[in-house]
Write a structure and sequence with these properties.
Elements lengths: L4 H38 L5 E5 L5 E8 L5 E10 L8 E3 L1 H12 L3 H10 L5 H5 L3 H24 L9 H6 L10 E4 L5 H16 L5 H16 L3 E6 L2 E6 L4 H17 L3 H5 L4 H15 L6 H10 L13 H14 L4 H5 L4 H16 L11 H8 L14 H10 L4 H6 L4 H15 L4
Antiparallel strand pairs: 1-2, 2-3, 3-4, 5-6, 6-7
Length: about 450
């Protein structure tokens, strides 16, 4: 073994590190060049965009520019990366077909079978070995491949792209082959942004943030990727085995984006807004108060969010589910008024008469007496000394005795006792009309 000495060892280590640094710099330069090329073509100012064609299919479109570099139209292109080093080219349909066939070489049957089993080629074209059917399947799959690869960069910032062959073989095969007709939907980013913008403005009175737009688009893309309408054909009969996303599915995804935003926003800011959520919270707070049910803003907000469904709660402006819950709570709280509540009478309809009587008897403004006033609550409950309900509200005589003896109200009653006679005649008629006292 030869001892090369410390100086020689240090020199060798330095040379090795320098080589590593050079290799890393070269790799970074290649990656930067690749990213720059993508940004130039697919970035916000690039000339290639994912968009819907006239048939509703998601395709890549290249802008047609005039002499002043202004877009005057667009035409469809196919992005196809068949190089193992990750380089890409923008090519048209004819070249895409040629490149794919060339890449498979003598394994054309493997290509044909792969396209058939993954739903890009019909059973008729596969069995008849139709060349035009093969070309159409290649073009359909290459277009989907191109859109997916570009969106991995534009949406997720990924640069680890697949080659076409690996991408196709990684697709799931359908049992029975291409006798299963598959339909898929992929919402463009611009359309998804508009959807979540409109939804949040409607609900919260504000547009979606960039982060919320990205979260919604990613969630929609994932859901749409896992959803498809597949129809298995047997003779002349077609059986649907699964379906695309429904309106309720998209609403559920939008609600999943909204709820964390609401939870992270101060209650005051939510209730001060102009969106449906603020309106619903205000409506339910007033409704709960009318039935003498104490509900916090947070509790009501939770009820609103839990009831977000298509065709109900916020989408229609109706709050039937939440209102029914409040009425149930009111019937439990005021069991002696349960039958009247079922007949459509609010607890406040009765409480207001006691408030009026208290105001007249004590010489105060009756609208200053809340349904949650201590004396009003005692009159509504009308329990005996053992705490048992008497089955109806308190009589006016008993209510007057309560106000006369209550240390908080007795001083006021002493100053304005002459008002009680006038109040008694009015309130008695009202309470009899409701049937809550004889």
């Amino acid at each position: 073994m030869v001892d090369i000495g410390p100086d020689a060892a240090r020199a060798k280590a330095a040379a090795t590190q320098a080589a590593r640094n050079a290799a890393a710099a070269k790799a970074k330069a290649q990656l930067d060049a690749k990213n720059a090329a993508f940004i130039d073509r697919f970035g916000t100012t690039g000339d290639i965009k994912a968009a819907l064609d006239q048939y509703g299919n998601l395709v890549l479109q290249k802008a047609i520019l005039d002499v002043n570099n202004r877009p005057t139209g667009e035409f469809q292109v196919v992005y196809l990366d068949v190089a193992s080093n990750g380089t890409f080219r923008i090519i048209d349909g004819s070249e895409a077909i040629s490149k794919v066939k060339s890449a498979y070489g003598k394994n054309q049957e493997s290509l044909r079978k792969g396209l058939y089993e993954r739903g890009y080629m019909t059973e008729r074209d596969y069995v008849s070995r139709s060349e035009s059917g093969l070309n159409g399947a290649i073009l359909k799959s290459a277009n989907e491949f191109g859109v997916e690869q570009v969106q991995r960069f534009t949406i997720n910032g990924q640069t680890d792209f697949s080659v076409y062959g690996s991408w196709l073989s990684g697709k799931a095969s359908y049992t029975g082959g291409a006798n299963i007709d598959t339909e898929k939907v992929s919402t463009p980013k611009a359309e998804a942004d508009q959807d979540i913008d409109e939804f949040l403005f409607d609900m919260l009175g504000r547009n979606a943030t960039d982060e919320e737009k990205i979260k919604y688009f990613n969630a929609v893309q994932l859901a749409e990727k896992n959803a498809s309408r597949k129809s298995k054909v047997s003779g002349t009969t077609a059986t649907t085995t699964s379906t695309l996303l429904t309106e309720e599915d998209y609403y559920r995804i939008k609600a999943s984006i909204l709820k964390p935003s609401v939870i992270g926003t101060p209650l005051e800011k939510i209730t001060e807004g102009t969106g449906k959520i603020a309106q619903s919270v205000t409506t339910l707070k007033e409704y709960a108060s009318a039935y003498g049910v104490a509900r916090t803003t947070q509790e009501i907000l939770n009820d609103v969010l839990e009831g977000m469904t298509v065709g109900g709660t916020l989408t229609t402006g109706q709050l039937d589910q939440q209102k029914a819950k409040i009425r149930t709570l009111a019937k439990a709280r005021y069991s002696n008024l349960s039958n009247l509540i079922d007949e459509g009478i609010k607890v406040s309809d009765i409480a207001n008469q006691f408030a009026y009587y208290k105001g007249k008897l004590l010489g105060i403004a009756d609208n200053s007496v809340s349904i949650f006033d201590e004396d009003i609550q005692l009159a509504l409950d009308n329990k005996d000394a053992s705490g048992k309900s008497q089955g109806s509200v308190m009589s006016l005589n008993d209510y007057e005795k309560l106000l006369r003896t209550n240390p908080k109200t007795k001083p006021l009653w002493l100053k304005s006792s002459g008002a009680k006679e006038e109040a008694s005649g009015y309130a008695l008629d009202i309470l009899r009309m409701f049937g809550v006292m004889a």
